[in-house]
Give the backbone structure.
Amino acid sequence: MWRHVRNISILTVIALIGFGWYVTRPDVAQVPVEKLTGPTPEFGAAREEMIPTVKVAEADPWTAGEAPVPAPGLVVERFAEKLDHPRNLYVLPNGDVLVAETNAPPGHMGDDLTGKIAKWLMRKGGAKTPSANRITLLRDVDGDGKPEVRTALLEGLNSPFGMALVGDTLYVANTDAVLAFPYKEGDTKISAKGEEIFKLNAQLPNNHWTRNIIANEDSTKLYIAVGSNSNIGENGMDTEIGRAQVIELDLETRKGKTFTSGLRNPVGLAWDSKGMLWTTVNERDMLGSDLVPDYLTRVDETADYGWPWHYWRYIDFRVEPGKPEKRQYERRPDYALGPHGAPLGLAFADNAKLGGSFTDGAFIARHGSWNRSPAFGYDVIFVPFTNGRPIKQPINVLTGFLDKDGKAQGRPTMLAVAKDGALLLSDDVGNIIWRIRSK
């Protein structure tokens, strides 16, 4: 039998919390976050929660002149603002920047009372806005770090997220399918109807609705990151077909297969300088504020990371029936990113020109916790690499997203490297694209 919590649904729990009926003391972190970060995290005992810790940083967006705090030697500027919940970013070969203005599809949390209260909590955190369902194009004509052209390249989509250009075809991943659109360099508007080339499982309630995509070097395949429809399979494993994995899609045959499995919610996708694919993964909830660390890991063909039965090759005893026989064949992630920080954006430093310590490694945007005490994430970090592997503790790149009262002025979301080597960051609470460059 699959279960998440005994005799009480998670939405009901959230409803109780949302109305102030939560009287149980939330779980508080007991382990320094540094011990749960890096290539060899130190795991303690799980503290199963009947009622989840909920610590929502209320949204209080930036005012004019305010900005996050860059690391020494770096400068952060507003590239574009007054966007509508900007999420994923994609830089075209000519330097145009595509922004997916998007959010969860209707019915994402259900329409009953508990679903409505869950939406109220999301709204408090700045996450509940109707999806604009739009890909916006930004063009910096004169190279001054500000786009003079801003147009709606594509409209009428269905919670779009991933974007990838292959030849003269722009692929866009809606929550329920991958679409193909004709594109020629310099286009500022695509009027053609997209061709659906591959369906994706978006069965309601469709938790973890984002679908990121990336093409391989020879442009023959797309890799699609699809998160699970639940925390630990409590909605039934029949709803998880084609989910919690990275799918390899052959563009010629339009047939897909599981490439890597057991990934609860993979979001960021990026190739390193050695041609290896990496992803950021959001791990499971309700085992306490110290578990389970999210992670950065290489995406290897046939690798299995254990979801929902195991995490980091530890048994999740809440999942019944168990599958102990498969644990020895599962792979541990490469690098822990701390618990509940919600890492999303991922970009390698190969083409970035930030200099200093930011030359060999990966930039990661952590969207920030909602179910950990104290709050964690809400930053952009840099994970140093040596010989193609992540090492040591991360380096802060951009901080200051939470104000002195713990409110979220912004939430780091996705990353891309601009044609001039600056790092671009979407902020879906501030509705801003930040541009980070060296001084």
